[in-house]
TrEMBL record:
Protein name per its UniProtKB record: glucan endo-1,3-beta-D-glucosidase
Enzyme Commission code: 3.2.1.39
Biological processes annotated in GO: carbohydrate metabolic process; defense response
Stretches assigned to the X8 domain: 362-447
Amino acid sequence: MVQSLLLLLLLTVSTVPASADEDAFIGVNIGTDLSDMPSPTQVVALLKAQNIRHIRLYDADRAMLLALANTGIRVTVSVPNDELLGIGQSNATAANWVSHNVLAHVPATNITAIAVGSEVLTTVSNAAPILVSAMKFIQSALVASNLDSQIKVSTPHSSSIILDSFPPSQAFFNRTWDPVMVPLLKFLQSTGSYLMLNVYPYYDYMQSNGVIPLDYALFRPLPPNKEAVDANTLLHYTNVFDAIVDAAYFSMSYLNFTNVPVVVTESGWPSKGESSEPGATVDNANTYNSNLIRHVLNNTGTPKHPGIAVSTYIYELYNEDLRPGPVSEKNWGLFDASGMPVYILTLTGSGTVLANDTTNQTYCVARDGADPKMLQAALDWACGPGKVDCSPLLQGKPCYEPDNVIAHSTYAFDAYYHRMAMADGTCNFNGVASITTTDPSHGSCKFPGSDGRNSTFVNGTTLAPSSNSTASSCSSRYYYYGDAFVRSTVIVVLLLNAVFL
């Protein structure tokens, strides 16, 4: 049974790029390197169940395009890299490709874009000289069929073609590719198309050797003093994704193109990795994709172009067990081959993409490696002003063991999270909590939300954990005064502005 889940001062004046779509959208890439690849009808059933209205295919598979007919789903088809040379050298070959892979399916199948190759400049550089020719030949075939206004032509680029990407205002495309990028951008501008860019903060984080904080890669809230600031523009960046997109905008502007929008054709986070890939976890994948979807659908835009849509395709629909490389390469999917979600996205309030938010199956837990003192402070608050019923943590009660601050704060965090109906921002606690789909219940200690049930909480007087607990006693009480908590015994003002919410 398919489960639902709720499942984009160097320039004082710049031309704002037009949105590639009226509103930002979230799409999904569909790879096929699975040992048990679902049938096209099964794939389409999953897409419809999850209300996924935009997809990108890595080819133009006939069976898939037939299954998508009359669904209204907006489809990007692709010219595979191994067909690029032929199409780029022959107008007739390009016209034949369009005839067989596009004309044969429209209008029943809603094809809206053609991706000509994938990361050609960085993966098949021998095809780079004919890339723009291939795009022009494909465009000519669309014009001849009066489909050029309905179907846009572009090509996805790896973000690695951008050099010195931070600060964004100093970023530029690898000059080696100027003979390709200049005519390519002219083509995109003249046809009203967009720059396709693959953006992977996961790789930036992994390759930074600790320079890029995990929170910055995952869209987690940052205090103002932790935000990255572009010294040239004084723009503040709170996440890697926005910084890369703006680096692309600045790179285009240095080539005098200021009105070509960006669409992110791939972005995501792996849910599993090898020991050398500690960032590849279910919680991190859930956090990144949930925050990415909210960020895009809120039409947040970027610091350089606030409010301008950055539509984005998540990589990817399925885990691809046949992909070569490390474990992480096989675990970027939102679903396994059976259509079961790898994790439940936490998307309350972000719209209808990826259907319903099954938040009854999510829990708020203490983050791995969190500072014990911060956990203790958060626990004290949850059991005090947070009005969580912490009586199950009393000695002799079901959730007393294990008697440590991690276990006790996990219970308190989850209790508060469910008491607040799992609303956005209620599982943060100044960065020491995170959402998981793994039920933390153990033995007779049942956590709120376990088995899909929300517990009932008393909003009046609540009990703090036992003072006999050396790790998690609430003997120090906090009283709430506006935006700060004052410790009654030490008279210290904690200037944490909405710290735990």
